[in-house]
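Quick illustration for those who missed Monday's session on complexes.
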Amino acid sequence: MSRKKTVKGKSSTSSPTTASTNSKSDGKAGKGIVGSEVQSNGVVHPSRPSLSNSSEFYDMAFKVMLVGDSGVGKTCLLVRFKDGAFLAGSFISTVGIDFRNKVLNIDGMKVKLQIWDTAGQERFRSVTHAYYRDAHALLLLYDVTNKTSFDNIQAWLTEIHEYAQQDVVLMLLGNKADASQERVVKREEGERLAKDFGVPFMETSAKSGLNVELAFTAVAKELKHRSMKEPSDPKFKLQDYVNKEMKSSGCCRS
Ligand SMILES: Nc1nc2c(ncn2[C@@H]2O[C@H](COP(=O)(O)OP(=O)(O)OP(=O)(O)O)[C@@H](O)[C@H]2O)c(=O)[nH]1
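Prediction with guanosine-5'-triphosphate bound:
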């Protein structure tokens, strides 16, 4: 199956909110996320729910960005999450940046995630840099069948520290966990790296759907918790939540 990946060359220096859209995106829905209806912490007043352009009410909205080397599966992960489908077949690299929206029900609240799919290729780095500062969360992907993509994680983290907000929610994902024959990065290596950098971690598969929903839900929960937090609230621990969910579903050892 062939597929078209976004072309957003003209938006390279514009902010995410002014970027143009294409048929793959949720179009103008992206424009609703910032401005008057969303506070700087991403929260929309709960007593006054907002209507996104995808015609779905939400209580709060956040921006999530997918980053990592070209070919690790960022677009496929997003498509799996949004549409429940896998983009098999020839690989066409993303050009620039694209976004899609999804509203999740998190503990009785509607949380809208505006998810930005960035191009992993080096030549688009300056385009994606412009988007980091607005991201509330980053999903950093490597490909368990590609050692270079794993080795590059440290460089990605350096970039993230340089361009993203200091308190950005970050999670490391080892994607393509379904590809056991081609695997060259062990789950334990991913766990160790994540531990060294103090980042939550899990393996995913856009192909099988393994942990895809969980990755986005965990991030949405963390963001919601942060923005609603009362001083007396116990701290939400993203990695603990992920571990608990994986254990209870018994799903996630590849
Ligand atoms: N086996 C397997 N293949 C995958 C998975 N996710 C993506 N792929 C394949 O990997 C290739 C690259 O996937 P993309 O989602 O386009 O990669 P990307 O990270 O968006 O790449 P750029 O747009 O260049 O940054 C495609 O051929 C996909 O079919 C997965 O979970 N398992």
